[in-house]
Amino acid sequence: MGGVVLFKERDGTIDAFASTMKTGSSMEVRSQHDASAGWGPVTSMGKVPETDIGLSQPSTVSQLPDGRVHLTVHEWNRNSRYWQITQDAPGGPWGSWQLCGLAKSGLRYDQHCLAVFTIRDGRIAEVREFFADTLHAKNVVFV
Predict the structure, then answer these.
(1) Which DSSP category does 49 fall into?
(2) Domain that holds residue 129
(3) Fewest beta carbons less than 10 Å away: which of 30, 57, 62, 122?
(4) Is the same domain home to 116 and 91?
(5) DSSP state at residue 140
(6) Mind listing the pLDDT tens digit for each residue in 10-63?
(7) How far apart are CA 105 and CA 137, in angstroms?
(8) How far is CA 60 from the centre of its chain?
(9) Are 71 and 61 a contacting pair, CB within 8 Å?
(10) Is the pTM of the predicted complex or chain greater than 0.85?
């Protein structure tokens, strides 16, 4: 696990990010909007959707042109994988963690897929998976 990373947003807000294992693998953030008001409460950014993940401190923190904050965080217990997360709205809640990685070729591999479940009689009867960009997989994984 890592230490605390501070980030100053364009509006002057200071965010303090730190990894935690209290509620599973996650990051927590505290923000200070005004120095005279002090720090706000610790807020969870949601759990990483896999078990046995050890998140380090954020590798990158950036603010997108629309004001949302974006983080990338490497796993301290695996070399080639990292996670990313972006706010849903400026100053708002965080989206879902997305797994990213490097293929054996050394190129970044971020494949997105969608799974459609058909439920019959309260049970999963069928699962269909759709990959967003098979050309990306071909060019990165199968080189």
Answers:
(1) S
(2) 103-143
(3) 122
(4) no
(5) H
(6) 999 999 999 887 756 688 999 999 888 899 999 989 888 777 777 888 989 999
(7) 12
(8) 11
(9) yes
(10) no
